[in-house]
Design goal:
With about 200 residues, this protein is mainly α. It contains 9 helices and no strands.
């Protein structure tokens, strides 16, 4: 006989969910997953770009979160805390396969094919602008198409707001490499989004 279906309505709000987690209520971790899984999965996909790997990061994130709930101080929301765990898990995963992904700093020079063919005027940093949902989807799709080394830099710098130095530390590369990869990523994104931008 199948067990009961668990929904997030077991808890009326995040504070009650947190209390349930801290009291180790049997339904609390399931409710945590149902409420925040899309957020965590999207974060993992932005970092690793592979559905199977993102699924693994998703599972590890929630396992660690449910085990470490007593260490959660409540100064941020549960979503922010899970986001941080997922980021750390994703970066640890990437470090484990860095040799397959990394581009040597000496190879981080702009190539002719990296220059956009369409040089239409565009805000210097469109990823920080207030975006409607359609444009956000276009940008996220374009980012997903970037090579891993470029996707990681533009995700951490432009979407997560890390500094150049923090991005370099997270990825284990030089500050100069971050700057070159970011510039290359932005050029490719501008090229990818040129047609969309010209229609709006």
């Amino acid at each position: 006989m199948p067990g009961p279906t668990i929904t997030i309505t077991v808890y009326d709000d995040e504070q009650q969910l947190l209390q349930g987690l801290r009291h180790h209520d049997p339904d609390s971790c399931t409710c945590l997953v149902k409420r925040f899984a899309p957020l965590v999965y999207a974060r993992a996909m932005r970092l690793v770009g592979d559905p199977d790997e993102a699924e693994g990061i998703l599972q590890t994130t929630f396992i660690k979160a449910c085990h470490a709930i007593d260490n959660f101080d409540g100064t941020s929301g549960l979503g922010t805390w899970l986001y941080r765990i997922a980021t750390n898990e994703g970066l640890m995963h990437l470090r484990s396969r860095r040799q397959a992904l990394a581009i040597d700093d000496v190879a981080d020079t702009l190539q002719p094919e990296d220059m956009p063919g369409n040089r239409m005027a565009w805000p210097e940093d469109p990823l920080r602008s207030t975006l409607d949902s359609e444009l956000r989807r276009e940008i996220e799709a374009a980012i997903a198409e970037l090579p891993a080394s470029l996707r990681l830099v533009v995700t951490l710098r432009d979407m997560e707001g890390l500094s150049t130095e923090e991005t370099a530390e997270h990825l284990g590369i030089s500050v100069g490499a971050v700057k070159v990869r970011l510039h290359r990523a932005r050029l490719r994104l501008r090229e990818s989004l040129a047609a969309y931008m010209s229609r709006h």
